C-alpha cells in the first residue's frame, strides 16, 4: 500500500509571497535603471522603486512562522494517523494470511473481498485527508498573500513608491540593486506590528 506524504507549508508560501510582491507593482511605471551608490542610507522620497527580499520575509514574518508551525503539526499528525491505520490494516492482512489455509473457500473469498474493500477505503481516506490539508493550506496561503499585498499597497502609497519589486536568491529578475533600495526590514517590522495588534 502506498504511503502519501503531506506537503509542508513552506514550499508554496514562498511562491505566494513572490506573487504578492509582484501584484503590488505598478504596471504603468517606466523601467528605471538602478544606479549604484556608495551609501546604504534609507531610501529617499525621490526613489520610486524599492525591493523586498522574500527569503528574509519568510524567515522573519511572525504570521508566516506561526502558519508554518501550525501546518507542520497538522502534517505530522496526518502522517501518524495514516501510519497507524496502515499498520492496523497490515496486521489484519497478516492475520488472515496465517489462517487462510484453514478457512473454507467461501469464508476465504468473503474475507479477501472485505480486505480489498478496506484497502480501497483506506486509500480513499488517505486521498481525502491529503486533499483537505492541501485545501486548508491553499486557503491560508491566500490569506498570507492578501495580508502582504494589502500591507505593501498601503506602504508604497504612504512612501510614494511607484513599484515594489521582490528579490529571492536564485529566483529573481533583479540582477543588481543598490542596498539603499532594500526596504525588507521596514516591511517586516510593519507586518509584524500589524500581526501583533490582531
Automatic annotation (TrEMBL):
GO biological process: protein stabilization
Residue ranges of coiled coil: 108-142
Pfam families linked: OmpH
Keyword Coiled coil belongs to the record: yes
This protein's record includes keyword Coiled coil: yes
Name under which the protein is recorded: Outer membrane chaperone Skp
Superkingdom of origin: Bacteria
Position of the signal peptide: 1-22
Source species of the chain: Pedobacter paludis
Molecular functions per Gene Ontology: unfolded protein binding
Amino acid at each position: 500500500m502506498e504511503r502519501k506524504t503531506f506537503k509542508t507549508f513552506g514550499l508554496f508560501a514562498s511562491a505566494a509571497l513572490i506573487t504578492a510582491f509582484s501584484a503590488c507593482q505598478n504596471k504603468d511605471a517606466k523601467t528605471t535603471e538602478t544606479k549604484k551608490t556608495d551609501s546604504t542610507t534609507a531610501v529617499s522620497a525621490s526613489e520610486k522603486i524599492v525591493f523586498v527580499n522574500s527569503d528574509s520575509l519568510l524567515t522573519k514574518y511572525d504570521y508566516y512562522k506561526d502558519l508554518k508551525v501550525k501546518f507542520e503539526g497538522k502534517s505530522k499528525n496526518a502522517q501518524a494517523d495514516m501510519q497507524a491505520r496502515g499498520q492496523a490494516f497490515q496486521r489484519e492482512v497478516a492475520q488472515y494470511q496465517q489462517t487462510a489455509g484453514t478457512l473454507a473457500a467461501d469464508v476465504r473469498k468473503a474475507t479477501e473481498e472485505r480486505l480489498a474493500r478496506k484497502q480501497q477505503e483506506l486509500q480513499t481516506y488517505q486521498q481525502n485527508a491529503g486533499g483537505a490539508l492541501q485545501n486548508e493550506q491553499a486557503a491560508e496561503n491566500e490569506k498570507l498573500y492578501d495580508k502582504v499585498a494589502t500591507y505593501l499597497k498601503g506602504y508604497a502609497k504612504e512612501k510614494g513608491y511607484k513599484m515594489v519589486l521582490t528579490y529571492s536568491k536564485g529566483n529573481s529578475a533583479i540582477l543588481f540593486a543598490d542596498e539603499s533600495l532594500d526596504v525588507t526590514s521596514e516591511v517586516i517590522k510593519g507586518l509584524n506590528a500589524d500581526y501583533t495588534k490582531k
